[in-house]
Amino acid sequence: MNQTIIRNGLLLAIALLLAGCSGLRIPGAPEGELEERQVIQLIGYAQRVAAMTAEQQRREYSAGNQAFARDKDAMSRMRLALLLATPGAGVHDAARAASLLEPLAAPGDAASPLRTLARLLYVQLSERASEHKRANQMREQLEALKEVERAIMERGQESQPRRR
């Protein structure tokens, strides 16, 4: 049992060290390389979030919300947006995800891997919202047509002579 605790503690310490090192800038490394690594980390994060249970996603949302409240940097903004944009997630909120991405996805900014990912996700969310809106409009039109059909059928029944 002690060996298991020690091994798990060591693995946790290594994971924390690696996570801390991932945010360090390497002297002489171009800014683009740093952002490329961040984008790769964000994609991995999105995959992990998609595989989480609803309870794990709620906990991750709570932690992500707190991190974003403390530091409104691009990475915490993107992490929270990715979590909220995950289809079928227990914390899915496409509108909030889009609002988080909007500052990063604004046109005219310098092209960077992080902003490119933000724009891609923002466009996908916008397209999903448009499709959802069109589907709702079509549903409403179908219901209106059904109501017209019912009214026509009722009038037709009323105009039929009654048999004695």
Low-confidence stretches: 6-27
Number of strands: 0
Shape field: elongated
List the helices and strands in order.
HHHHHH
Q: For the terminal residues, how far apart are their CA atoms? A: 90 Å
- Please identify the oligomeric state: single chain
Question: How would you describe this protein?
Answer:
This protein is mostly helical and 164 residues long. It has a domain at 30-129. It has helices at residues 2-22, 31-51, 54-70, 74-85, 94-105, 113-159. The radius of gyration is 25 Å and the shape is elongated. Mean pLDDT is 83; it is low at 6-27.
Task: Throw out a few tags for this protein.
164 residues, 6 helices
SSE map:
Blueprint: H1 2-22, H2 31-51, H3 54-70, H4 74-85, H5 94-105, H6 113-159
Provide a quick synopsis of the model:
The chain is mainly alpha-helical and 164 residues long. 79% of the residues lie in helices and 0% in strands.
